[in-house]
Amino acid sequence: MPRLVITGVGQDKRSAVVLDGPISAYKDYPEYQGIRISDLWKSGSLPTPLEIPHAANTHTVGPNVDAGSAGFNVRHIVFPPRGDYALHTTPTIDFAVVLSGEIVAVLENGETALHAGDIFIQRATQHGWRNPTERPCSMLLFIASAK
Question: Do 81 and 135 contact (CB within 8 A), yes or no?
Fold first, then answer.
């Protein structure tokens, strides 16, 4: 699993690493073909309050996007091999980076194959995902509320 490093301000009022380790707060969703989700950092508003303790932002929520009405969510997702995820719409702009593996972005008007290193920006459209391979696909998403 990827390593998560979070900075903050130490007791000496100097910048420091306050969390460094593998992402451990995953939740598996068997009802969604075993997809694994971890919300790494989220805020219901911008600008984001900096006084939120880092531990409060390393948790897992349901598969539904929760970016608030003016916020964001940074999420790590692992799509299992041979998974097929139905079309859905979220009121968000999603900036997705494929970290490893392959995934197919499914849209109403076609499909686009994405590979490690590819960036996909989804703008509140009907979309779904399909992993046609025998390997998991790891993806980092920055999900921002949209109107």
Answer: yes
The closest alpha carbon to 93, from 118, 65, 72, 124, belongs to 124
- Taking the alpha carbons at both ends of the chain, their separation in whole angstroms is 33
**51 burial type by CB count under 10 A (0-12 exposed, 13-18 middle, 19+ buried):** exposed
Backbone angles phi, psi at 58, to 5 degrees: -120, 80
Distance, CA of 67 to CA of 32 (rounded, Å)? 20
Q: How far apart are alpha carbons 96 and 64 in whole angstroms?
A: 16
3-state secondary structure of 124: coil
Burial letters for 10-40: b for 16+ Cβ neighbours within 10 Å, e otherwise? eeeeeeeeeeeeebeeeeeeeebeebbbbbb
What fold is seen in the domain 24-145? Jelly Rolls (2.60.120)
Q: What's residue 52's pLDDT? A: 64
Count of residues for the chain?
Answer: 147
Question: What pLDDT is recorded for position 60?
Answer: 47
pTM for the model: 0.85
